[in-house]
């Protein structure tokens, strides 16, 4: 199989982890006889430094011509501490999602049994958890109008959804539910927010096309609590952009670490694959980052964009084997009393 893959390492730990995602793609190509060619492009803080633009035209053009994109992370503390900054690294990520029509962000909470002790939640509560989140990705407060009053003392972000935006991601989530356990939970705040009432009404309508799927609706505050209390009650979770962003960071603790969660953004065009974690500048360049989320993102790419299921499963099996042998990066090693063999980014990447 011939495929053109664009690698966008981005900021902070992005380049360290995508190095290993790309290396795994090269190894898969070698083992299975595929022809994967790679290009690189800038996005985020590094792109602002080089061009003044968090998403240069050249990056977007390369993205549109690729078969799949492997992305690292964007962000820099400098902007977090400067709320007045007009140009920010995250604008690059939001813009590329919009431009490529990537409206559905799939975030599987893949729990390796070997990591049951890496979570602060009891193993008996966690064991058997397998959740697939569908986070809407091109609407909500992220894209609604942002305003600041002239005196600077009032600010607003418009939480806005169009019916068609909810319909198209709801169909994707229900289709996934049909291939899994036929259970779907839609998360909103319909007791308070008008956009959530439209969300709920639309999901109820779409659900009529999937009568076999047991559909429930839950408020975001309750969902945040149930996720810790009884994660196994969830199978497919469908939610809006902001709620999905927050809930999946919370859910990463079920899997042991933010460094374990991969994501796939899909929609109208080229698929976009990235760890859910951000740029983590505090550990950048220290060989501490966990490359497994990037490597698992590659497994998603092979499965979802290229239909290479065996290759994708091989990556998951290899990660399972390495974890079973006791190898860990710092974020999934349990403090100083553990019996694990703790590896840096490079050694974990090479081992996989
Ligand atoms: N790899 C994910 C990443 O870079 N996240 C940083 C970020 O700004 N995320 C915003 C979002 O996911 O909406």
From TrEMBL:
Query: Where does this protein reside within or beyond the cell?
Result: Cytoplasm
What's the Enzyme Commission number for this chain? 1.1.1.85
Q: Which residues bind substrate?
A: 97, 107, 135, 221
Q: How is the cofactor bound?
A: Binds 1 Mg(2+) or Mn(2+) ion per subunit.
Indicate where this protein is primarily found.
cytoplasm
- Site feature location: Important for catalysis: 142, 189
Q: Does the keyword Hydrolase apply?
A: no
Q: Which GO BP terms sit in this record?
A: L-leucine biosynthetic process
The Isopropylmalate dehydrogenase-like domain covers 4-352
Pathways per UniProt: Amino-acid biosynthesis; L-leucine biosynthesis; L-leucine from 3-methyl-2-oxobutanoate: step 3/4
Catalytic activity reads: (2R,3S)-3-isopropylmalate + NAD(+) = 4-methyl-2-oxopentanoate + CO2 + NADH
Lipid biosynthesis is among the record's keywords: no
Q: Name one Pfam family in it.
A: Iso_dh
Q: Name one GO molecular function term.
A: 3-isopropylmalate dehydrogenase activity
Q: Which GO terms describe its cellular component?
A: cytosol
Describe the function of this protein.
Answer: Catalyzes the oxidation of 3-carboxy-2-hydroxy-4-methylpentanoate (3-isopropylmalate) to 3-carboxy-4-methyl-2-oxopentanoate. The product decarboxylates to 4-methyl-2 oxopentanoate.
Assembly information from the UniProt record: Homodimer.
What family does the entry list?
A: Belongs to the isocitrate and isopropylmalate dehydrogenases family. LeuB type 1 subfamily.
| PANTHER family xref list | 3-ISOPROPYLMALATE DEHYDROGENASE (PTHR42979:SF1)
Q: Quote the protein name from its UniProt record.
A: 3-isopropylmalate dehydrogenase
Q: Specify the species.
A: Pedobacter quisquiliarum
């Amino acid at each position: 199989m011939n495929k053109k893959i664009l690698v966008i390492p981005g900021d902070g730990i992005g380049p360290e982890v995508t190095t290993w995602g790309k290396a795994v793609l090269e190894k898969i190509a070698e083992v299975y006889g595929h022809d994967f060619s790679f290009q690189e492009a800038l996005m985020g803080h590094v792109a602002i430094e080089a061009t003044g633009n968090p998403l240069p035209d050249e990056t977007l053009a390369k993205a549109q011509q690729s078969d799949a994109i492997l992305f690292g992370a964007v962000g820099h503390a400098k902007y977090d501490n400067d709320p007045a900054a007009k140009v920010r690294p995250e604008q690059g990520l939001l813009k590329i999602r919009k431009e490529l029509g990537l409206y559905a962000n799939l975030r599987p909470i893949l729990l390796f049994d070997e990591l049951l002790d890496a979570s602060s939640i009891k193993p008996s509560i966690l064991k058997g958890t397998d959740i697939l989140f569908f986070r809407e990705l091109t609407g909500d407060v992220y894209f609604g109008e942002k305003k600041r009053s002239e005196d600077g003392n009032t600010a607003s972000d418009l939480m806005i959804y169009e019916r068609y935006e909810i319909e198209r991601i709801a169909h994707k989530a229900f289709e996934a539910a049909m291939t899994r356990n036929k259970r779907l939970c839609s998360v909103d705040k319909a007791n308070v927010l008008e956009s959530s009432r439209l969300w709920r009404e639309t999901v109820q309508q779409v659900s009529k096309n999937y009568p076999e799927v047991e559909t429930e609706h839950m408020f975001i505050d309750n969902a945040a609590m149930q996720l810790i209390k009884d994660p196994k009650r969830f199978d497919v979770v469908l939610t809006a952009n902001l709620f999905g962003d927050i809930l999946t960071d919370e859910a990463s603790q079920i899997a042991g670490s933010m460094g374990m969660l991969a994501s796939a953004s899909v929609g109208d065009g080229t698929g976009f694959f990235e760890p859910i974690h951000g740029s983590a500048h505090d550990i950048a360049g220290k060989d501490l980052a966990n490359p497994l989320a990037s490597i698992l993102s590659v497994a998603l790419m092979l499965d979802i964009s290229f239909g290479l299921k065996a290759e994708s499963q091989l990556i998951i099996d290899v990660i399972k084997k390495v974890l079973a042998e006791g190898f860990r990066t710092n974020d999934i090693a349990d403090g100083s009393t553990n019996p694990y063999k703790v590896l840096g980014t490079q050694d974990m990447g090479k081992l996989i």
